[in-house]
Amino acid sequence: MNPLPYTLPAESRIGHVHLKVSDLDRSIAFYQEVMGYTLTQRFGTQAAFLSAGGYHHHIGLNTWESRGGAPAPSGHPGLYHAAILVPTREDLAEFLRHTIALGYPLEGAADHGVSHALYLRDPDQNGLEVYWDVPEALWPRDAAGALQMFSKGLDLQALAALSLPA
Description:
Elements: E1 17-20, H1 24-33, E2 38-43, E3 47-51, E4 59-62, E5 82-85, H2 89-102, E6 108-111, E7 115-121, E8 127-133, E9 152-153, H3 156-161
Parallel strand pairs: 1-4, 5-8
Antiparallel strand pairs: 2-3, 3-4, 6-7, 6-9, 7-8
């Protein structure tokens, strides 16, 4: 395969995800109460932007083509999940404790070697991953230095026991 004529700069990041939802109020409540985002702007009954840390928006929600609609059937193309990076393992633990306190179900949890991840679904069945990146010096590599990612169970009891620094 020939090299592509253009590649994004290494510092590039996904700035936000914009989701089609069936019920705007229900989705705003989920992203505020469960995920911890702040509503930054609302456009009537059709759209809203939510943010963490004062950014203009990390999550966009709209009902332009989806108001009252059913979630996409399993096995069809579409979003698998949006991944939300938290800065520390303790922050991931805090999110876990928050979901437990709310009684909000996790769909899974995994140690990928390079990250520790919690998985859940929003009210429209969009997949969400909340994760912490393991420091790069600790990433698993084979004898030749190639990255060796995997999926193993994550010890949720040990994670929940972590405290945020004082």
